[in-house]
Write a sequence for this structure.
């Protein structure tokens, strides 16, 4: 069974006001001093108001969920000593002036990309799924392209930007898309062509290194995995587990199609960009673009089409029933974006929205 690992980026906020605080270095220092904590799990990100953790590779989704909850609670415990909290929010609902880290890499990004880097306080969720080789990995990338916007729609958790309603369910996706290497990609056809394209992009001088290959899904440059990077960080960890489950199903299904000689769908990048825009705009509240027909369809129908697409893989891994239950809950209760909007409609106060999201992050 393929292993799965998750990276979550979290927002560091003031425990009293809910405003983001530039405390990542202090939280990492607190983790390193704690003999009961594994400080290697946590990392800083571009902005000092962010903290990232990475799970170990897991084959059981129950164990993956336990680990996600554990590291969220550990991060919250380290932040608490600094009068701060963590929030699984993909953008800050409250106004913020992001603070870029002082490291050489972060300063290079600031110098070269200006406001694109300065404003980039966004929190995503990255799912790593193991593959047997680069050739299999690229075959998977070629075949999962049209399904990635559906994962984005299911994860949407960023309706507010700088204190304003953005009109999007995932405004993070729109902000992240400002990077020149972000978004959907063409069909590569082979591992050689993939690596050639990456090398050409780095050689252009626009990108610092392979770490700046920000495709919606890519071969990891550190692990033998396909890394699916399209999702917002999810408010509820059960949604993260559902995304990881479906991501593994997509990878396994695509690998089987490749072994059986089934070619990838030939949808162009322009259509995939439209599908991503629709998913970021609508979440699960309106129509999405169906990955097979590339025509509008109700969001629930599109999500169920994804489930049906990977059902055989889910049955073999024993994930059908828990995934069905999690999907039913998501469709009933809505994504993090709906939760945030409902909270704001009830309270009229974005600080209250942040406070409740802090509570739900570690619930």
């Amino acid at each position: 069974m393929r292993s799965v690992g998750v990276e979550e980026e979290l927002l560091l906020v003031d425990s009293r006001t809910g405003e983001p605080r530039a405390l990542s270095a202090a939280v990492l220092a607190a983790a390193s001093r704690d003999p009961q904590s594994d400080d290697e799990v946590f990392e800083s990100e571009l902005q000092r108001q962010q903290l990232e953790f990475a799970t170990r590779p897991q084959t059981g989704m129950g164990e993956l969920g336990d680990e996600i909850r554990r590291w969220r609670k550990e991060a919250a415990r380290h932040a608490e000593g600094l009068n701060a909290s963590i929030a699984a929010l993909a953008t800050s609902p409250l106004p913020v002036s992001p603070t870029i880290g002082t490291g050489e890499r972060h300063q290079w990004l600031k110098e070269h990309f200006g406001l694109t880097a300065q404003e980039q306080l966004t929190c995503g969720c990255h799912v790593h799924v193991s593959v047997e080789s680069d050739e299999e990995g690229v075959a998977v990338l070629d075949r999962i392209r049209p399904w990635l916007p559906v994962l984005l729609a299911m994860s949407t958790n960023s309706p507010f930007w700088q204190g304003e309603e953005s009109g999007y369910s995932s405004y993070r996706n729109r902000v992240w898309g400002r990077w020149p290497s972000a978004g959907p990609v063409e069909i590569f056809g082979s591992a050689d062509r993939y690596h050639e394209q990456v090398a050409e992009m780095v050689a252009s001088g626009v990108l610092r290194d392979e770490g700046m290959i920000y495709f919606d899904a890519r071969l990891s440059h550190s692990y033998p995995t396909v890394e699916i990077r399209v999702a917002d960080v999810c408010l509820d960890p059960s949604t993260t587990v559902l995304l990881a489950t479906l991501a593994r199903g997509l990878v396994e299904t695509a690998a089987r199609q490749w072994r059986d000689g089934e070619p990838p769908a030939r949808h162009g990048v322009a259509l995939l960009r439209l599908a991503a825009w629709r998913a970021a705009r609508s979440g699960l509240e309106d129509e999405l673009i169906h990955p097979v027909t590339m025509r509008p369809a109700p969001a629930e129908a599109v999500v169920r089409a994804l489930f049906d697409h990977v059902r055989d893989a889910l049955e073999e891994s024993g994930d059908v029933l828990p995934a069905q239950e999690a999907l039913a809950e998501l469709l009933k209760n809505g994504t993090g974006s709906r939760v945030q909007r409902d909270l704001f409609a009830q309270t009229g106060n974005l600080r209250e929205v942040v406070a409740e999201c802090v509570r739900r992050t570690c619930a």
